[in-house]
Amino acid sequence: LKLGVSEKNVFHEFHPDAEDLFNVTCDLKLVCEKLKDRTQRNKRQ
Which residues fall in a coiled-coil region (predicted)? Predict the structure, then answer.
């Protein structure tokens, strides 16, 4: 089933920092847990 939705779009809708964090960690569970609150930005390390 093709929905025409890319992971980039999903990450952007979930949280502005989600794609960057996923690209660094490759851990979707960590991204979801760490970025639960869309209004809080992820601190870069």
Answer: none
